[in-house]
Amino acid sequence: MTFQNMDEVYKFYGRYAYEVGFPMKKYRERKNCKWLDCSMEGKCPVRAVDNPKVRNNTSSKRTKCKAGMKLKKIYDDAKENVIMVRIDLLHLEHNHEFIKQQEEKDQLHRNKIHDPEYMEFIGAMQDSRVRSIALWIMYQKCMVVLRTSRKAARRRGKMPMMCIFWSHASQQGDYIDFGDAITFDMTHKTTRHVLTTTYSALCLGLGDETVETFEWVFNAFKTCMGTEGPRVILTGMVCIHAIFRSRPCNANSTTQSLPKRNAQIVSMARENRFMQFLNELYARFEEEDFKLKFQSIIHHPLTKREFETAWGMMLDDLHLHDDVSLKNLYDIRKEWIPIFFKKDYCGVMVSTQRSESMNKLMRSTHVDAKTPLHEFAKQMMKLLHNRKMKEAKEASACKGQKETNTLYEFEIKVARAYTRAVMIRIEESMRYATAYKIERDPDGVNDWVVQHTKRSNGIIWGQHQFKVMADVEAGRYTCECKQWEHT
What we know:
This protein is an alpha+beta fold. It is 39% helix and 18% strand. A hairpin with a 6-residue loop joins strand 14 and strand 15 (447-452). Helix 4 (133-145) runs parallel beside helix 15, helix 6 (211-225) packs across helix 7 and helix 11 (290-299) packs antiparallel against helix 12 (304-318).
């Protein structure tokens, strides 16, 4: 087979590599020939064990693959210009697995080009210089591309659009996999159409913040997501709490459509209402380390009695029994102290920080208060597309075999299955696990007592001994801290 120039051969072999699912590269080149090989060619250099410059967490995808083609250059009579390129040698056998996911194929260096369908969609939205009707045009196009997209809208009087709720297939899939605990946090910013917006796990615009509006939001959430509600909702909004406090569960209530646990929505943002008063106390008792003691009392106790005892000791030491702010915080302790709802699964989320980071990313790079509705929806799609591509890039980067710190079979299996970020956290956990002393509990067959080897005497009530139940035969593991159950 012959080609007119090297670019045609590169495009031809690149298309073949894309369809099969392997990365390619331009290899050696001579005056009369050139090689196009699989990127898995070669092997990772072996480093000496006693070499002080050995790098940790290194990985290599090279598997000594021999697949590729050798090209023969045919010159003109003057031996200056290439007039034809011929395939002289071809190897098709690979010794590694092929890439099957479409998103991972797009992350290959050869395939990092703009998606023509997506660019056509963006161009159509930019050309639609009309009012909010462009949003419905976007919805119709999304319904064609994503058959499982869901949308809902609410109108009131002459207003063209009171509330908007929209989700597509990737968001619904993420909710099915990771929707046991979610955050619901508004941006507290409005668009040019006076719609408060949120976009942590969905695209949502609200005309007001009343009880009826949030009831509509929860009903639309259940309808569009097509599944049951989450176990726990973390929010810092007082209006959300009003829904469940002012209206009991009945056949016509929103709380009836959500799990029973959601009747008491978890809120970890109560402390923010008292930050002004707490900052005054932080500055007043800076020498006594009041801030450190206060934060440790909130997060470290394992039992309710332990928290109440520690709180009383703090008031006695600093003579703060008459402080109104601390008294009000203590009265609502069941709504914001983790120990009072540690049995409820929350995926180790204790605040709305995760949704706040998404809101900041969206506001800083994609939208602002002057963004029209159809542009807002387009930018939301762009953000989700970018995140999807980054996830595919991370998945593609984890294909290589990672060097583990130990030869434990557990660590080797984890290194093959999880991403680099998760692997780093697991390695840190394994390192910190060596700082604990484990003893068998005489009161239980499968019970163990875990205690840190370097306990601090600075906090009297903080000398913890964690009781761990490990039934290997039944496959049940639990700890008082609930970290195992929540991860």
